[in-house]
Design goal:
Layout (H helix, E strand, L loop, with lengths): L5 H8 L19 E4 L12 H9 L4 E8 L5 E3 L11 H4 L17 H4 L33 H15 L4 E6 L2 H6 L4 H11 L10 E4 L2 H9 L6 E5 L9 H4 L5 E3 L6 E4 L5 E3 L2 H7 L3 E7 L10 H11 L4 E4 L2 H11 L1
Parallel strand pairs: 1-2, 1-11, 2-4, 5-6, 6-7, 7-10, 10-11
Antiparallel strand pairs: 2-3, 8-9
Length: 331
């Protein structure tokens, strides 16, 4: 099988001009932040090192890491707490599924997880790619990796290029991990501390959907990192004052902000961003995909409405190059 030598190749092919290190851009009120959602996942299988290297070369501000613990307490960079939608686990370890038919990351050691091949996300019932026009499924060779490995890649590239691209980890399902006897927050915070991420100035943003856990991270675990409360329900939008007591930003689905069109065809914008800003909360919305436009005619139209009409502070995107280019030409 052809080994996809994308890490060195992409750094050479995509613009990678040396830049002076800068401070955390999220502190600048006028900056629009580009976050590589699972890396450059519109082009390469999500959360692979190759997708992260490609995103880095696209000059994003932050690269996202979803985190789930292995059986031996290694934070694995993967979106779900189970494995079967992005790996060949059902072929390599058919006997390891739980009674619900799923293969859980937490049931495997790091060494076992390294044996799996990673592919483009697919539907387990049809075995077809969720996004059919992206990287072909089951082609080339991609592997899972740890948070430490990804940090070392990004920090190494920061040193060799002179850039200062940040990390944007998400703690996945802390309650599930606690039920399994593991405290993912403590483990991840210790690793972040070891690599120099301790305060809001260290170019690391930590996010989580679990409000109780994010509050615990601020209040009990005494973290001084920039914290973002992810939200997905209407009722969450009424808790901005509460969120502001421990978080520095919120992460809503963009359709909680751009709610549709009126009878005249104008885009309707909710007051979520303006209300969040009243409490000094940044708004980083998810997820902007050039191959999933819904009612928008073009990706640029979507970005223009989100960043400039709705005044969203930052976006998670599968297509970082397109958003970086849009922001540069509209500034």
């Amino acid at each position: 099988m052809f080994r996809f030598l994308v890490i060195p190749l992409i750094i050479c092919l995509v613009s990678c001009n040396n830049q002076n290190a800068t401070t955390n851009k999220v502190e600048n009120k006028n900056e629009k932040i580009v976050i590589a959602h699972r890396g450059a996942s519109g082009y390469l299988p999500e959360h692979t090192m190759e997708a992260k290297a490609m995103a880095y070369a696209m000059d994003v501000d932050f690269i996202e890491q979803d985190l789930v613990l292995s059986n031996d307490n290694v934070p694995i960079v993967i979106h779900d707490i189970h494995l079967e939608t992005v790996t060949d686990v059902a072929i390599k370890f058919p006997e390891r599924k739980r009674t619900d038919g799923k293969y859980y990351v937490i049931d495997f050691t790091f060494d076992e997880l390294k044996q799996l091949n990673v592919t483009e996300r697919f539907d387990v019932t049809t075995n077809k790619a969720v996004y059919p026009n992206r990287f072909p499924i089951n082609k080339s060779s991609f592997k899972l990796h740890s948070l430490q490995e990804e940090i070392e890649l990004i920090q190494g590239l920061n040193k060799s290029t002179g850039k200062n691209i940040g990390i944007y980890p998400e703690l996945k399902d802390p309650a599930f991990h606690l039920e399994e006897g593991k405290d993912i927050s403590v483990i991840v915070l210790n690793i972040l501390n070891e690599y120099g991420y301790t305060t809001k100035k260290d170019n690391c943003i930590l996010q989580c959907f679990d409000a109780n856990e994010l509050k615990r991270i601020r209040k009990n675990l005494k973290s001084e990192l920039f914290l973002v409360q992810l939200i997905e329900f209407k009722e969450d939008e009424q808790k901005l004052e509460e969120f502001s007591k421990y978080a520095d930003g919120i992460g809503p689905w963009y359709k909680q902000i751009i709610t549709g069109k009126d009878n005249d065809g104008n885009w309707q914008i909710s007051n979520l961003v303006s209300e969040a800003h009243k409490f000094n909360l940044k708004v980083h919305a998810y997820t902007f995909r050039a191959d999933q436009l819904d009612d928008f005619k073009t990706f640029d139209e979507l970005l223009n409405v989100a960043l400039y009409q709705a005044n969203i502070d930052g976006v998670f995107t599968d297509f970082p190059d397109k958003v970086v280019s849009f922001v540069k030409k509209t500034n």
